[in-house]
Input
Amino acid sequence: MKNFALALREAWRHWPALVGALVCSLGVAALWSANIALLFPIIETTLNKRTLQDWNRERIAQVQSELSAHNAELAKLRVQILVAPVKQRKELQQQSSILESAALKSEKSLWLRQLVQPAIERFLPATPFSTVVFITMFVVLATALKQCLMIANALLVSFVSQSIARDIRGRIFDKSLSLDRPAFNKQGISGFAAHITHTTDMLASGITNVYGGAVTEPLRIITCLVWAAIISWRLTLASMIFAPLAAYLMLHLNRKIRALSVRFIDRSLGFHHVMLEVFNSLLTVQANTMEHFERDRFRQSTSKMRSIALKSTFYNSLASPVTEVLGMGMLCTGIIVSSYLVINQETAIFGIKLTDDVPTPASMTVFFGLLIGAADPLRKLSGVITGINTGMAAANIVYPLFDIQSTVLEPANPVPFPAPHHTIEFRDIRFSYDGIQNALDDVNLIIERGEHLAVVGPNGGGKSTLINLLCRFYDPQEGAVTINGVSLREIGLADLRKHIALVNQQTELFNETILHNIRYGRWDATDAEVIAAAELARAHEFISEFPDGYNTLVGPNGQRLSGGQRQRIALARAFLRNTEVLILDEATSQIDVESERLIHEALLEFGRDRTLVMITHRESTLALAAKVVRLEHGALTTVRTTALQAA
Output
């Protein structure tokens, strides 16, 4: 509840829309009950063939008669009190107080009826039929206005909930970008994707139900019950005898629904995980003819979701009968009790006084209508409560995401990147991904400015880990990576990475134009600078052959391009960054011999007075290196200082 309350408070940033929605809800509730209350003058006019003017005059005369009777009886009681014995005087004084209250009530009623009589005489029709037509037309217009207010309310509440959903999605996306890899992997791509879409939608639905249904429906119930209480507050209370039991049952169902909503969200994460994993590895699935296996895995995950959804539907479906039984119980109790009073011309049952006067058929008909009017929103309230429960479950999952902290932290007082740098040093580095096996074990390495370093070794030897530490995607558990003696932990992450360009073996391109993908390296670069970087990476020639040139869409992850073309675009992006340090992680593995020769020329040209770190197995790339180190089983086992020896 705490997290959902936080979401509701955040919604008040849009308080003008919420205030407007509240005004619309009040209008809807007032018109809803007023339309039912207007049955009374229609029934009175139809049954007795009299106008509202006549009816009000009769009521004025009746109230005047009642007031005269009260005053006369009060005068008698006052005389009796003066002469009565002390023992009887207290009882007589109580009777006098009751009569004074009744007389005061009659005076107020008389004052109000006399006040409105001139307006009734002036503005309302003077014949019974025209009176019915007038009231009926008023009801139609009031209903149309009510519908307009309901639409306005829905739009305003939807604006607020969707605005909050947009903000929440942005915050989740921002959080995913700010996390280091270990923290990100706790949720994974599927987890963040599910929370940005499905979980946030559930939260938005909960907010909509609170500021929409949870306001409008109770207001409709309250206004109907207020009108019913004006007719007889005691009879209204008697009609609500089953309310405590229904409230207890709804509370119990709420707990069940909320728990199932949490389980449903948890299972949906598994469903997203399987789906995204298969889609991202579709070629591997098809190449290994594992379609049947993945179909079964997908169906198992959705089957678990279906099981939880069925349980949730069962408990949700129980909520509607509980509220409907309460509404029918309220209505039936009111019918039985009021019918007894009307038929027997009584004001009490079992000695319990329920009305001041014997109820008339017209007043009881309106009373029944008001109870029915309260029962309808009561029935709809069950769906509102279900929506709120799912919103609460979603909030309990979404908001803890914002508290996740990266293990790679920004320094409190960052030191500027030492530019130009002179040395990069890995000092006594120990690092483990799982806390069990070391990926790097007591590694010491110094890279001088302008040095071209090749890192070789078997797969799993720690080469990529070395790069991850240099880019500070991870921090070592022991030791430090320094630049000019300054630990990377003391340099701001953005400042550090601004001076490093990285090209991975698995080239990552966006489903945008080639121009977009190259300019991603430095967004403020001009078109001329982008083209120059592409020419340096030997990509300009094949780009120019496309009909749309640099405006060619590359497709998801560059699937419309060959592997070599993708890598050259990635190289162009790295060249455009114009950084002091360039890291190549098997970046030429998918390039043909001629392209590789041209790129090597570009690297030699680009690498002047720049530090190059190359992870490679290709002998031709080793020729670019002045120093070669070998990493095997996390240990630096061999260092060679000439490219010829390494080859």
User: Anything to note?
Assistant: The chain has a mean pLDDT of 82. The first helix runs from residue 2 to 11. The chain has two domains: 2-51+125-401, 423-646.
